[in-house]
């Protein structure tokens, strides 16, 4: 069922828990699917999903987003707030095509899962062939929709905070020496998904653990989390990156639908975060570079030309430029 939202431009469709077989995407012209997933809440999934989507849009890519969190709907609110802020300030902001999908809540779990699968396939099919990227934000829970999305992922980004409380979602460590004891049940299930993906599509998921709010190590405070991530990455085959540090700017921009990549102009919001804005932008650009996503270069060039035209359209042409056709 479709519930049109004027602010979010989203479609709410009916979904529950379990594990899913990979969902086949039609062909090589399909969008590259980026899935943000972690069973734990508060790791920054929605913030990163919004920033990745906007960064790709600013690179001239065609981007769609899907929100699978039926309770918080943080990404859906972000898109709605972004549209509202652009109207309020009379500015242009890049906004992804957005779909919000809710879980089916019937009396029978098997029927709910059938509904969830059909609903997600319809949602993805509606956008995959006319977009370059599809960014999917999943709920902080072991849900059937989340496992369906994992089966579709080309890039899986798993944010976690820089502590062993969050590392527990990936693996179990020795409480004395901090050495890895074994992967978590969640990690083993992702490995099963990757194995099924390789059999089904003959390719792999680029699985990335993203360490957020990381603290600097020192001789008196060795980086034990990094050591544990190195050990587990070798064991199960993912790569890990430093994500976003603890900055108030991320928390304060999200309710306005803004990212640190946006030009926010004058005003109290810009003034308050002028110092941290440059550092946050460098951090986000570094993240986009290391994610190594398949950017459509033609789209990037088109966007750069359009941005240059907007920057110069109010300037009067010089006489020699008119004569020479510059």
Q: Nutshell version of this structure?
A:
The protein is of the alpha/beta class.
- What is the rounded Rg? 21 Å
**Helix-strand topology string:** EEEHEHEHEHEHEEHEHEHHHHH
Q: Which stretches of 5+ consecutive residues score pLDDT under 50?
A: 1-28, 313-323
Output mean pLDDT: 82
Instruction: Report the structural category.
Output: alpha/beta
Q: Helix amount, in percent?
A: 40-55%
Number of helices: 12
Question: Strand-residue fraction?
Answer: 15-25%
Principal-axis shape equals globular
The total beta strand count reads 11
Major beta sheet, strand line-up:
1-2-5-4-6-3-7-10-11
Q: Classify the oligomer.
A: single chain
Largest sheet: 9 strands, mixed
What is the first-to-last residue Cα distance? 53 Å
Please describe what this structure looks like.
The chain is of the alpha/beta class and 326 residues long. It contains twelve helices and eleven strands. The strands form two sheets. Strands 1-2-5-4-6-3-7-10-11 form a nine-stranded mixed β-sheet, with helices on both faces. Strands 8-9 form a two-stranded antiparallel sheet. The N and C termini lie far apart (53 Å). Residues 1-28 and 313-323 have low confidence and may be disordered.
